[in-house]
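Students often ask why we bother encoding 3D structure as a string. The short answer is that it lets us treat folding as translation between two languages. Here is a chain of 173 residues written in the first language.
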Amino acid sequence: MTRHLYRIIYSKTVALILVSVFLFTLTSCSASNTKDTSPIGGINYDTSVYVMSYENIEDEEEPGIVYREVLDFNKLVTDPDRTLVLYFYTTANADVYGITAGVEDLAQYYANDITFVGINTIDMREYTTAYNLVALPEFVLIKNNLIISYFEGYNYDYWTMEDVSYWIEENLK
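And here it is in the second language, the structure alphabet:
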């Protein structure tokens, strides 16, 4: 009788272990299939396509702008719940750093409403063709997966970030 009882306990224990392993495998596979598929990745200041994200920065008292790598550009620009300003620039232009600082200010100001995407066209030339860009810098406003307007800097003798902000406000009315 004791032997029979040990066999029952042993077989139940083995069955329980096998079921546990099966369930663990099943849940771990489904967890990997439902991983975060955000088009925006980690902080990366060396990438050619990035989101200017206003957020808390480690070891800083105040939030600021960080550059987050764009992992899936098409997914980002076709997101119907996201309003975007694409900022096309070239590092060959000496004024790019002053302009980029102004775009960072706009990204901070509109942080809750608009996603600002910087695109270095020296590395990403195919985007200049895809968006029919003529000169740089240039801004493209996208809402509900549609191009709303272009701010073509070359059409102005002189412009400021206030002009870009006005352009955004006017086109989002």
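Translate back mentally: DSSP finds five helices and seven strands in the chain. Keep this in mind for the problem set.
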